[in-house]
From TrEMBL, chain A:
<protein>
    <recommendedName>
        <fullName>Tetratricopeptide repeat protein</fullName>
    </recommendedName>
</protein>
<feature type="signal peptide">
    <location>
        <begin position="1"/>
        <end position="20"/>
    </location>
</feature>
<keyword id="KW-0732">Signal</keyword>
UniProtKB/TrEMBL annotation, chain B:
<dbReference type="InterPro" id="IPR007890">
    <property type="entry name" value="CHASE2"/>
</dbReference>
<keyword id="KW-0472">Membrane</keyword>
<dbReference type="Pfam" id="PF05226">
    <property type="entry name" value="CHASE2"/>
</dbReference>
<keyword id="KW-0812">Transmembrane</keyword>
<keyword id="KW-1133">Transmembrane helix</keyword>
<feature type="transmembrane region" description="Helical">
    <location>
        <begin position="317"/>
        <end position="338"/>
    </location>
</feature>
<feature type="transmembrane region" description="Helical">
    <location>
        <begin position="284"/>
        <end position="305"/>
    </location>
</feature>
<feature type="domain" description="CHASE2">
    <location>
        <begin position="17"/>
        <end position="301"/>
    </location>
</feature>
<feature type="transmembrane region" description="Helical">
    <location>
        <begin position="344"/>
        <end position="366"/>
    </location>
</feature>
Length: 312, 387
């Protein structure tokens, strides 16, 4: 018992006295920090005045107070799995925030919450150097690949999509002002064509010319530089049975919640788990669009792209 | 070190996750070493290739090569043929370089043969004009969220020894240093980080700068030029090919990746050329320290128990806390002053357990021993009386 006490003291003193970067609480948490941008801080206990920097993954107990600085953002996940975004500067009591959240059952998305937080703050304990051969997968280099126009697509083919609104993104090609998007069937017949000056495009698979098909080839080319090489990407809709199941789970995930950047992030992890990588990518993009200043989202997005071998 | 302390308690989870991927010695890189300790490494010049295509990179190589650098290392892979125009331009540009090093990658480690099965290189039309070195770095669980602290100097691939990219570049630049470096025969080497290009630790040239007709690259003569991706330009913020390093300002908790892969390689090269390596303390020393500390603690605690029995718990806890701080200070100080990495987890465990072990010994083991001894003594005596 004395050892446990001693270790607790050591850990606590380390945190508070030496590093002053983290705080602990033996009480049950009510919120976890999913994303934090700006100078946000937390004071432990209702009477506390000692404000400390708030970190992603940190737990907030009901006695804690949270202070949001101007132009800051805080994404919180309640222990029930419900999400909360704070954007208005001010001081908030964790218990009041928890009360404001409806108490309807929303435990389904708890595992996605945990997944996202683990992705940001997951623990590994091994001697990385002694087992170096299993830790040498990352290469500090870039590819200058086969094609000049490369869409942001996972390496695995075909890529399945649940949503009819497919987000296409690709690199900017020097000397190009507009791009052509061709959607072909499996016999290379053009089903749909569009042009854009941007390097992203939302393809609507529910439109009349595309609705009947279940799989497509997408080619993105440069109008100004027709000789620039590009690849054809295979996209397939999920089967109607799978779509039904996913729709049901997704509705459960969204239940009673407005669409916020935090909920988009949770949807992204849900889609990733179901191998719907294009849908996950879109959810990440939407989360970032909603909160462009939150660096945590961009980092999580990049890890997602790397994890799933998206082409660069 | 802290993460190795075997403790399982949900109470400590927030701390555990905050301290995950934290090493005490990171403080040295992140906070203790002043930026002025190392001035810019003038041997290495970083050149940003940005989003240039192969023809663009070829043009960049041609411009750089005019200034006669000693070696050009390109931290980008060109695995398959692409457009004829771009490929030909790049191959011709590479052919004109005297000393060219390209990146490779080692994949699929075979535990049975204890070597890698696959070496992934650029297309032979490019590798023909230079040598290769693998760009693989050691990052825990291949997790982009973890810090890159070390690299493997060489690996066997199907009977052939492939050197790491920084080692190969340094070998071409100064072979004698690499001879000594390889004699260390370490399976891995910690990177003694000099700094980032943004903090002025390396000369860095941006994409557009190279193509500026006014640009004078005469300072490249006889230098190592490392060409790699450092964002679309130096102003842009991107996470591609960016890694966490111990230089990250937030050494505890999460922050954002801070260094491009090519800059990590530059740091490794710089360390090799300076011959300022980080050494691991021998395990035997770590054990000896643990044993000595344990012995001294036991002696001290016995004295406390015999003379200040009532104060035993309080005094030992205070002393153990003090020792823990001293041990941590020693770990950081040795790394800071002598580039020596010492693992004192065992010593820490000895310090933390010695007081309880002693109590256990005096209150249980010794009493049991005395009791058994007494019973034996009584039974022997009674046997003698019977006879």
């Amino acid at each position: 018992m004395k050892i446990i006490t001693l270790l607790l003291v050591v850990y606590t003193s380390l945190c508070q006295a030496v590093f002053a970067q983290s705080t602990t609480s033996p009480q049950e948490y009510v919120f976890k920090v999913l994303a934090s941008s700006g100078s946000n801080s937390v004071a432990r206990g209702s009477a506390a005045t000692d404000w400390k920097s708030l970190k992603t993954g940190q737990k907030i107990t009901k006695e804690d107070k949270i202070k949001l600085a101007p132009d800051s953002f805080l994404g919180l996940v309640h222990k029930s799995g419900r999400t909360l975004e704070l954007k208005t500067p001010g001081t908030f009591s964790a218990s009041e925030l928890a009360t404001k959240l409806a108490t309807s059952q929303a435990t389904f998305n708890q595992k996605y919450v945990d997944f996202m937080i683990n992705e940001i703050t997951k623990a590994e304990k091994e001697d990385v150097n002694k087992n170096r051969h299993s830790n040498m997968g990352i290469e500090g280099k870039v590819e200058r690949g086969e094609y000049e126009i490369v869409a942001r697509m996972p390496a695995a083919k075909p890529t399945h999509t649940f949503s009819d609104q497919v987000l296409l993104k690709w690199n900017k090609l020097p000397g190009t002002r507009s791009y052509k998007i061709n959607v072909l069937d499996m016999f290379d017949e053009v089903l749909y064509s569009a042009t854009t000056a941007d390097t992203m495009f939302t393809l609507d698979l529910s439109q009349a010319t595309l609705r009947k098909e279940s799989s497509y080839l997408v080619a993105i080319s440069s109008i100004d530089r027709p000789s620039a090489t590009f690849e054809k990407y295979s996209i397939a809709k999920v089967s109607p049975e799978d779509a039904l199941t996913i729709n049901k789970k997704l509705a459960q995930l969204k239940e009673g919640k407005e669409e916020t950047s935090v909920s988009k992030l949770l949807q992204a992890s849900f889609f990733e788990e179901n191998n719907l990588l294009l849908d996950a990518m879109k959810a990440y993009e939407e989360a970032i669009k909603l909160q462009p200043s939150v660096e945590d989202y961009k980092t999580a997005y990049q890890q997602f792209l790397d994890r799933n071998n998206f082409q660069k | 070190m802290l993460s190795s302390i075997p403790i399982q308690s949900d109470v400590l989870n927030p701390v555990e996750s905050t301290f995950d991927d934290f090493e005490l010695t990171d403080i040295v890189f992140s906070k203790l070493r002043p930026d002025t300790l190392y001035k810019a490494d003038t041997n290495i010049v970083l050149v940003n290739i940005g989003r240039l295509n192969r023809a663009g990179i070829a043009e960049q190589i041609n411009i750089i090569n005019q200034y006669k650098p000693k070696v050009i290392g390109i931290d980008a892979a060109f695995r398959t043929p692409k457009s004829l125009e771009g490929d030909t331009a790049l191959a011709h540009a590479m052919a004109r370089v005297d000393n060219l090093v390209l990146v490779s990658g080692v994949h699929q480690f075979n535990k049975e043969t204890n070597q890698y099965d696959t070496l992934e290189t650029s297309h032979p039309m490019f590798t023909l004009h230079g040598t290769t070195g693998f760009a693989n770095l050691i990052v825990e669980s291949d997790d982009y969220y973890k810090s890159c602290r070390s690299f493997s100097p060489k690996e066997n691939v199907r009977g052939h020894t492939e050197l790491a990219f920084p080692v190969k570049v340094a070998q071409v630049y100064q072979p004698s240093i690499i001879k000594r470096f390889l004699q260390r025969d370490n399976a891995y080497e910690y990177i003694n980080y000099r700094g980032n290009f943004t903090s002025g630790s390396f000369y860095a040239v941006d994409v557009a700068e190279v193509f500026d007709p006014e640009w004078d690259g005469s300072f490249l003569k006889d230098k190592i030029v490392l060409m790699g991706y450092m964002g679309e330009n130096f102003q842009s913020r991107t996470l591609e090919d960016k890694l966490y390093t111990p230089l990250n300002e937030n050494y505890v908790g999460k922050a954002h990746p801070d260094m491009y892969g090519v800059v990590v390689h530059a740091n490794s090269i710089s360390m090799i050329l300076r011959e300022e390596y980080i050494n691991d303390a021998p395990t035997v020393i770590e054990i000896v320290i643990a044993v000595v500390l344990c012995f001294l603690n036991v002696v001290l605690f016995t004295l406390i128990m015999n003379h200040f029995g009532d104060w035993y718990d309080s005094l030992t806890i205070i002393w153990q806390l003090m020792q823990t701080c001293i041990i941590m200070y020693v770990v950081v100080a040795l790394f800071y002053m002598f580039n020596l990495k010492i693992n004192l987890t065992l010593a820490l465990a000895a310090v933390l357990l010695s007081s309880n072990a002693l109590e256990l010994y005096y209150h249980i083991v010794l009493r049991m021993y005395n009791r058994t001894h007494f019973i034996k003594f009584v039974s022997n005596k009674s046997k003698k009386q019977v006879t």
